[in-house]
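Q: What would this chain look like folded?
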Amino acid sequence: MNVDHQEIEKFSAIASRWWDLEGEFKPLHQINPLRVDYLIQQITQQARPSQGYPNDILAGKRIVDIGCGGGILAEALVEHGASVTGIDLAQESLTVARLHGLEQGVDVAYHCISAEDFAVQHPGEFDVVTCLEMLEHVPDPSSIIQAAAALAKPDAPVFFSTLNRNPKSYMMAIVGAEYVMNLVPKGTHDYDKFIKPSELMRMIDETDLRINSTMGLHFNPLNREYYLSNRNIDVNYLVFCQK
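A: My prediction, written as structure tokens:
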């Protein structure tokens, strides 16, 4: 199975704090509106390039979120009208996700299953596939990308996000985020697992996905706010593909 058990144990140990807005997952809560907005914009441009930016573009769409964790992205997509399935191999995180969904009245179908096995069971069933902040936590990210491609319907949007591997990303994502500003717990990231855009694109090229665009996710240390910009993809970046 394409799983790093140390990664599972690491996230399981803090699973109860997935929805603590001031806890270890605070950065995910802060960037989530940016991620959702980016998804909606790209899907809108693909589906209705001349019809503006409708709020209902996700309504009724079947979305699978690979590596859903505690359900932060999944719940936000449901609030935009989507029918969402979240998959993850950290059972403790899924338990928290289910409980929070019940508390909030947000219906997400969660499954403890690998992306590869889920793709075998549900090939070509989803209108949108997301896999955000997950590829750098598995031994074989190319296997996840292949599974994501297999889950998507023809023409379906597929989104990935991960961390670039270079001196700047090491300084910002590990030294800065983990040790200086304490944005995330120490040991959250393994620099050796960061993925250069050229490597990610090569993995994508081995599937039937085509890359439409990339976007950088940036952090301003002065006001401690995140923002999207395509000026560079030196640290965190998103990739929008289409099957």
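The longest strand covers residues 210-220.
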